[in-house]
Structures are given as C-alpha cells and as structure tokens.
Amino acid sequence: RTRSIVRGVGSYLPRRVVSNRDLEKFVETSHEWIVQRTGIETRHIAADDETTSVLGIKAAEAALANAGMTPADIDLIVCATSTPDYTFPSTATMIQAGLGMHHGAAFDLQAVCTGFVYAVATADKFLASGSHKRALVIGAETFSRILDWEDRTTCVLFGDGAGAIILEAQEGEGTSADRGVLTSHLRSDGRYREKLYVDGGPGSTKTTGVLKMEGKEVFRFAVGSVTDVVRDAFDATGTTAEDLAWFVPHQANKRIITASADKLGIAPEKVVITVDRHGNTSAASIPLALDAACKDGRIKQGDLVMIEAIGGGFTWGSALIRW
Ligand code: ACO
Questions:
Q1: Given the residues 79, 113, 155, 294, the one annotated as active site
Q2: pLDDT by residue (tens digit) across 129-161?
C-alpha cells in the first residue's frame, strides 16, 4: 500500500513571549496557580502583523527547508485552524499564495484542538488514494484573538503559533515500507458543544466571539477519550505502549498529558511536553512539539510516534507514525 512518509517538519512562534508574571498585571491570577493547575510558564502572543496565515507561511517555509524541498514539490496544503485571518478565503489558500505557489489544492480543516490529527489523517488518505504526491500539513492558530482577556479561567491557558510537516506518498515496497502514517482514528460528538465553544460567528452574533469553556468538564472528558483512541491505534497496528519511542499529545495541560500517559502505561521519559513554554496553541500544538523534539534530537528516523488530541465539539483522535 502507499504510505505517507514524514519528509520535513518546521514551526514558527510569534516574537513576543508573555510570562505568568506578565498576566498577573492585568488579571487576578498568580504564576503559582497557573503552573500548579496547568504546567504553563510562558506562551507566545502574536502581534497585529502576525496573523494565522503569516505564522503558517513561516512554519511551512521551515518545513520545506527541513525537507530540502521548494513549493514546486508540494501539490496539497491542508491547514488546520479555528482562527483564520478571514471567514473566507481559507488560511490554506493564503499560505499557498504566500509561498508563491499557484498549482495544486489548498483547504482549511476545522476540528479545533484536534485539527492537526484530523489534517494528518485527511492528507494521508489523499496520498494513499494516489490523487496527490506531497502534502504540507499545517496547524496554525492565534487563539489570543478569540480570548476574553478579562476571564482568568481561560485567558491564561492559550498561546499562538504554527507548525507544519510534509508528508510524501511512497509505495509500500522497499526499505521505507514500514515508515509513515500507520493508522489514524478520528472521533467527534457534537452533544458537547457547550463545554468548549466560541460564542460568536456569522450565524449567531455576527461577531468573532470569545472562547467559553467548562474547564473541569473538559478535563474529565479528555483523559478517557484520548486513552480510548490511543488504544484504538495500538489495537489496529498490534503495537503497545512499550513499542512507542515518543508520545506527542496535544499540549493543553500538563495534568491531562501525564494522567493520559499514566493510564496508557507510557513511560514519562517518552512524553514530549512543550505546554510549559507554548501554552495551549490548539491545532498548532502537536506540530510545534514534533518540531521541538526533532530539532533537539529526540525524534529520529524509524521512531514510533503517537500523536493524539481532544478539542471543541468535542472532537478527538490519534495517529501512529513511524518517523
Ligand atoms: N488564577 C487564579 N485562580 C483561578 C484562575 C486563575 N487563572 N482560574 C480559575 N481560578 C480559580 C477559580 O475561580 C476557582 O476559585 P473558587 O474555588 O474560589 O471558585 C479555583 O481557581 C479553582 O478553579 P477550577 O476551575 O475548579 O480549577 P481546576 O483545578 O479545574 O483547573 C483548569 C482549571 C486549569 C482550567 C482545568 O480545569 C483544566 O485544565 N481543564 C481542562 C481545560 C483544557 O485543557 N482545555 C483545553 C482542552 S481542549 C482544547 O485544547 C481546546
């Protein structure tokens, strides 16, 4: 069968770093509370000129450079985002234009924090079908623009950024036969809309709106759902937690990450954590974490890497990748 092999990875973070101490100056919170409940210490916050597409273009350029490719090599762009520059056109076509690319197809995909897992699964299926050869799979977000900066229960949790990987279709014959996206498992259940949503949009208030969350409910749902889809990925491939080299979960909260890894029997030293430095960057968090772990030499070719996420909807999912 055709496999989608990871050929490159890249990311980009806004210039401005905001610490918990900075947040203490305008909301009733403390560095200690935020670290204890979430593990977050700093996050990057976009300036006005750092829109989602701008971050996405820079992450895409970094991934292309990492792969030794140019936009001419790409024929598909899938961008996961819930914070597009405009209602339309898609952020993906803006990234396409920003790369100087006028061929191929580009579209956005919206599954909130699970967006990158959905995007990997979608691009993998495009490549497996034979319709496309090389996909830029991007997660890019500026959640700072949909936060109520007076609501301490949400504004301390999120950050901005973008990450990208390049997937290339390769026939399952030959040396790289066991590499690539081995399986993916996507779930959603729209009954949970009110647990985590943005209270605006063209069909409601006609404004952008701000993020609303019942944190405790999300937390409770997160650990169970995420462990279910990770087990689905293990079952589908006949692998176990022991076989994993790296567990790269959506970075929402350190407590959710460690509780999930613990429940799955994944050793703490295999868990990649960037939430301390990035906060929750929604669909960008996994590719940002993948890039960090590739750059510092942790993720190497041949490693078995599990990605998973849960987000608004609810949506949740996993993908198992042989790097
Ligand atoms: N600083 C100080 N105190 C605060 C803050 C803050 N930033 N926010 C809330 N508090 C207070 C509350 O008002 C409450 O005070 P009270 O007891 O006087 O009423 C107290 O702290 C405890 O609040 P809880 O909400 O019960 O705190 P909890 O331990 O549940 O932690 C948190 C809150 C961190 C939001 C947690 O529920 C959580 O992490 N949930 C998951 C959220 C998440 O990860 N969402 C994203 C996942 S999906 C996605 O990525 C889109």
A1: 113
A2: 999 999 999 999 999 999 999 999 999 999 999
Taking CA atoms only, the protein residue closest to ligand 1 atom 36 is 215
User: Which of ligand 1's atoms lies nearest the C-alpha of 23?
Assistant: 7
- Catalytic site residue 31? no
> pLDDT tens digits for 75-124?
999 999 999 999 999 999 999 999 999 999 999 999 999 999 999 999 99
Please indicate whether residue 20 is annotated as part of the active site.
no
The pLDDT > 70 percentage for the chain reads: 98
Just give the CATH number of 2-171.
3.40.47.10
Tens-place pLDDT, residues 207-253: 999 999 999 999 999 999 999 999 999 999 999 999 999 999 999 99
Contact residues of ligand 1, CB 6 A cut-off: 29, 33-34, 37-38, 112-113, 152-153, 156, 196, 213, 215-216, 218-219, 252-253, 256, 280, 282, 310-312
Tell me how far the alpha carbon of residue 186 lies from the centroid of ligand 1, in angstroms.
27
Q: Where are any strands of DSSP class E within the chain?
A: 2-12, 16-19, 42-45, 76-80, 105-109, 134-142, 160-171, 180-188, 196-198, 211-213, 246-249, 304-311, 315-322
| CATH superfamily of the domain spanning 180-322 | Thiolase/Chalcone synthase (3.40.47.10)
Which one of 250, 253, 278, 294 is the catalytic residue? 250
Q: How far apart are CA 248 and CA 25, in angstroms?
A: 33
**What is the helix (H) or strand (E) element at residue 306, kind and residue range?**
strand 304-311
Beta bridge partners of residue 168, listed in sequence order: 5, 134
Same fold, 2-171 and 180-322: yes
Please report, for the chain, the start and end positions of each structural domain, with discontinuous segments joined by +: 2-171, 180-322
Peptide bond into 89 cis (omega under 30): yes
Q: Tell me the mean pLDDT in the region 263-291.
A: 98
